[in-house]
Structure formats: structure tokens, C-alpha cells
């Protein structure tokens, strides 16, 4: 399961203020749908790439921040009548007051307020609808731009996912072949390709899917070969996607595909 415990206090790379971010104790990567463009629908794992917006207006990745400390989970404030509240179902000999003190923050409200005022605000999430603004802000470095464009790529593919599901719900076999990326999609994918290829260790399977959607089949196969020939062993998920893409190249079917792992 995905479980967050407390909050991480971090220093932002843009203006150096302190903000808080999630502190994950465990992450569940299972999902209802996996797609060849990397989208995991219905996943309990974070899907935002760690992209955040600072209070100063700048954008950054959580991994670019400087870790300061971890704040533990805070207890809920005790109800006003907590000292006289009877907790139902207690074992014989248990004291309701002790249980309330363990479960709630029973300190005076003024003390809690003063403590909470010292906690830095949360870093702002960047929603899919805000990705274009972040890309056009002129403030993103290459690493942050790569994450923003990757998310934008998947976001722009989402309407096709609806068409894909509808097609598969009404056809016993086969795949839809009407994927036609817009000029906006092509521009974003071409710029994402350049960012990916500029990395020291490119994600060759991601590049394979990008070239597949850009209709450059020969380069799709080259990217798959490079993924298989790299030093790190190709993962099971990558093997599945590689076989799918090879079949799509042979059948001349475009667009991202839903698959199982």
C-alpha cells in the first residue's frame, strides 16, 4: 500500500524558502491500467513526477530540494469536552481520559496554534491543467522541463484513452488505428525527445514509444535494441512494452496501447 507518514521539510532550489512535501513510508505501484506512454491509471503511486510550484512562482522537482527534517504526524485536536468524554468499548480497568490523551492533542488551543504557525506551508501541486503554463513560464531547467513535458505528453493522450476504451468495449479483437496527434502534441513530443536524448542514460523504452507516436518506426526498433543491449538488465515491464511496440510497428498501428503486466 501507499502510506505517507508525517511531512518532509525541504528548502527550495528557486528562492530558498522552506516548504513541506509528502513523506512516503511505502508506495504501491499497482494500477488498474498500464499504458505504453507510461501512464498508470488508478495507481496508488504518485503520478506527478515530483513537480511542484513554489510560493515565489518558480517550479522545481522534489528531488532538487534540500532535505531539512521530517515532521511526525500530528494528532487531531481534542474535542472541548474531552476530559468528561466516555470512550465506548474500553477493556475493563481502562481510563477514558487516558485514552483521549493518547489519541488526541489535549494541549491548550493557543499552544497548538503557536506550534502550527511555525510549520512551513506545503509546496503547491502542479495539476495537469497547469502543465502548459509551467512549460511556458520560462523558469524551468532541463530536468524540470523534462518532467513537465512528459506529464503533458501523457495528459494530451488522455482523450485518446477514452476512445481506445470505447473501441475495446465494442470490439472483440484488434486495436483502434485512428490515433492522429495534433500539431501541439507533435511539438511537445519532439521537444521531449530532445530532452530525453540529452540525458546521460536515456530511457530508451520511453523514446521508443515517443518515436512510435511520431511515426518513425525504424528508430522505434533502434531504441528497443539499445534498451536490450544496455548494461542494466531490461525489466519485465520493459520486455512487455518492447514486444507490444514491435507488433505495432509491424501492423502500422499508432498511439499508446493499454497492456497488462
Number of helices: 8
Unreliable stretches covering 5 or more consecutive residues? none
Q: Say how many strands there are.
A: 11
| Radius of gyration over C-alpha positions, nearest whole angstrom | 24 Å
Shape: elongated
Measured by DSSP, the beta-strand proportion falls in: 15-25%
User: Which structural class should the secondary elements be placed in?
Assistant: alpha+beta
Helix coverage percent: 40-55%
Widest sheet: strand ordering: 2-1-7
Compressed to H and E, one letter per element, the order equals EEEEEEEEHEHEHHHHHHE
Q: Between the first and last Cα atoms, what is the distance in angstroms?
A: 18 Å
Largest sheet properties: 3 strands, antiparallel
**Average pLDDT, to the nearest integer?**
94
Give an account of the 3D structure.
- The chain has 261 residues and is an alpha+beta fold.
- It has eight helices and eleven strands.
- The protein has helices at 96-103, 109-117, 131-135, 142-170, 183-197, 204-213, 217-229, 236-251; strands spanning 3-11, 18-26, 33-35, 40-41, 51-53, 59-61, 66-71, 76-77, 104-105, 124-125, 258-259.
- A three-stranded antiparallel beta sheet has the order 2-1-7, with no helix packed on it. Strands 4-3-11 form a three-stranded antiparallel beta sheet, with no helix packed on it. A three-stranded antiparallel beta sheet has the order 6-5-10.
- A hairpin with a 6-residue loop joins strand 1 and strand 2.
- The radius of gyration is 24 Å and the shape is elongated.
- It starts with a strand and ends with a strand.
Amino acid at each position: 500500500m501507499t502510506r505517507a507518514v508525517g511531512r518532509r521539510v525541504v528548502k527550495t532550489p528557486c528562492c530558498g524558502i522552506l516548504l513541506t512535501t509528502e513523506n512516503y513510508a511505502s508506495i504501491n505501484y499497482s494500477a488498474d491500467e498500464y499504458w505504453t506512454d507510461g501512464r498508470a491509471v488508478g495507481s496508488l503511486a504518485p503520478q506527478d513526477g515530483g513537480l511542484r510550484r513554489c510560493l515565489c512562482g518558480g517550479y522545481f522537482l522534489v528531488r532538487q530540494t534540500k532535505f531539512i527534517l521530517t515532521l511526525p504526524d500530528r494528532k487531531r485536536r481534542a474535542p472541548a469536552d474531552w476530559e468528561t468524554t466516555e470512550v465506548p468499548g474500553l477493556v475493563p480497568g481502562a481510563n477514558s481520559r487516558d485514552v483521549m490523551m493518547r489519541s488526541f492533542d489535549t494541549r491548550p488551543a493557543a499552544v497548538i496554534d503557536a506550534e502550527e504557525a511555525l510549520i512551513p506551508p506545503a509546496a503547491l501541486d502542479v495539476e495537469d491543467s497547469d502543465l502548459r503554463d509551467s512549460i511556458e513560464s520560462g523558469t524551468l531547467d532541463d530536468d524540470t522541463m523534462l518532467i513537465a513535458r512528459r506529464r503533458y505528453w501523457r495528459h494530451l493522450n488522455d482523450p485518446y484513452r477514452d476512445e481506445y476504451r470505447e473501441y475495446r468495449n465494442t470490439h472483440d479483437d484488434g486495436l483502434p488505428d485512428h490515433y492522429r496527434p495534433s500539431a501541439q502534441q507533435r511539438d511537445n513530443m519532439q521537444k521531449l525527445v530532445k530532452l530525453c536524448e540529452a540525458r546521460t542514460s536515456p530511457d530508451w523504452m520511453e523514446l521508443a514509444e515517443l518515436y512510435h507516436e511520431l511515426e518513425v518506426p525504424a528508430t522505434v526498433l533502434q531504441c528497443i535494441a539499445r534498451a536490450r543491449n544496455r548494461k542494466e538488465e531490461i525489466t519485465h515491464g520493459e520486455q512487455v512494452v518492447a514486444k507490444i511496440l514491435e507488433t505495432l510497428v509491424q501492423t502500422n498501428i499508432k498511439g499508446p496501447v493499454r497492456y497488462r503486466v
